[in-house]
Amino acid sequence: MASQKLSDKVAVVTGGSRGIGRAASEALARHGASVVVNYCGTADADLDKADAADDVVRGIEGTGGKAVAHEADIADEPAARGLIDRAIDEYGHIDILVNNAGICPSIDFLEMPIESFDRVHAVNLRGAFICSQQAAQHMVRQDNGGRIVTVSSISALVGGSYQTHYCPTKSGLHSLMQSLAIVLGPHGITCNSVGPGEIDTDMNRTIPNYDEISVQLGKRIPLGRVGQPEDIADPIVFLASDDARYVNGAFLLIDGGMFVNLQ
Ligand code: NAD
C-alpha cells in the first residue's frame, strides 16, 4: 500500500480521465487524496468521455479512495471556475491543483488558421490561468497552504515544427508558475511545473505508425524507452506532497535524458 502522505488533501486534476491526467488522479488517490477528476466532451478533447472519467472514479473507489467526475471545458471561464468550486462543494476545501489538460493538434505553421492558435492558447494557457486563480483564491482564504502543479513540457525548452501554437503555451505555463510562485509563496502555496518528454498517450497515438516511431525515439533516449503516464504521475505526487515543501517556481524535466542527448 502506498503512503498516505496526501490523506485529508483534496485535489483537482484537469483532463484527469486519460493519459497523464488519469495516472495523476490515480496516484494522488493512492496516496490518500480525494480527487475531482475533470473531463471534457468538446470536439478537440472528445476522446475524453464521461465513461472514461467514471472508470477512473470507480477504480479509485474500488481501492477505498474518494473521487468524483466533473465535466468542464477549462477554456470556458465559468466552467473552469465551477470545476474548482466542485472540490469545495464535494469535500469542503481544495489543497492541490494539477493543471494537466492540454491539446496539441499537429498543424503546419504556414497554413495554420489563427483559430487553431487561439484554441490551443485558450485550453493550455488561459485555462490553467483561470483554474490556478480560482484555486488560489480558495487556498488563500483557507489559510492552510496549497500546491499547484502544472504539466508543461519539454516543448517549453525546444521548438516543434508542427507545434508553433503549442510550444509557446508550454513555456508560458512554466513562466506562469514562476510568477505564481512569487505571488502565492507568502501564503504557503507552492507552484511548480513538470516537463514531460515523449510520453505514450493518446496525444501521440494520433500520429500514424506511432508504435514504430516510439521504438525509434526510445533509441535516442538514454533510458531506452519513451515514458509512460505513471513516470510523470509519481513526480506530480512528489511536488504535491510535503516532501516538496521547499520546491517553489521549479521546472522538473522528466524525459529519460532525451534533452541532454544532443550530440
Ligand atoms: P491526452 O490527450 O491523453 O490528455 C489530454 C487531456 O486533456 C485529456 O484528458 C483531454 O480531455 C483534456 N482536455 C483537452 N481539452 C480540454 C479542455 N478544453 N478542458 C478540459 N480538459 C481538456 O494527452 P496527455 O499526453 O495525457 O496530455 C496531458 C498533458 O501532458 C497535456 O498538457 C500535454 O500537453 C502534456 N504533455 C504531454 C506529452 C506527451 O508526450 N504525451 C509531453 C509533454 C507534455
How confident is the prediction overall: mean pLDDT? 96
Give helix % range: 40-55%
Order of helices and strands: EHEHEHEHEHEHHHE
Rg over C-alpha atoms, rounded to the nearest angstrom: 17 Å
Uncertain segments: none
Tell me the span between the first and last alpha carbons.
42 Å
Which overall shape is indicated by the principal axes computed on the Cα atoms?
globular
Ligand roster: nicotinamide-adenine-dinucleotide
**How many H/I helical runs?**
8
Structural class call reads alpha/beta
Biggest beta sheet summary? 7 strands, parallel
> Strand portion, in percent?
5-15%
Strand order of the largest sheet: 3-2-1-4-5-6-7
Topology, number of strands: 7
